[in-house]
Description:
Elements: H1 6-16, E1 23-26, H2 29-35, H3 37-40, E2 44-47, H4 52-64
Parallel strand pairs: 1-2
Amino acid sequence: MPGISGYELARRLAVHYPQLPVLLTSGYADELARRDADAVAHLKVLRKPYRQADLAAAIAEALEGKA
């Protein structure tokens, strides 16, 4: 996304829509966690590469509020 990271978008959305489920996918999830572990602790991050079944399970968990 030009000009904004998925993490930053999730952070902004949480301010206005705290109950909105968010699922991030990233090939750089470990780097993000090292940079700002406290900020991403409440986010569900699915690490790439992932299988379709993993994505389906992560979406279901996010929608159930388990993220």
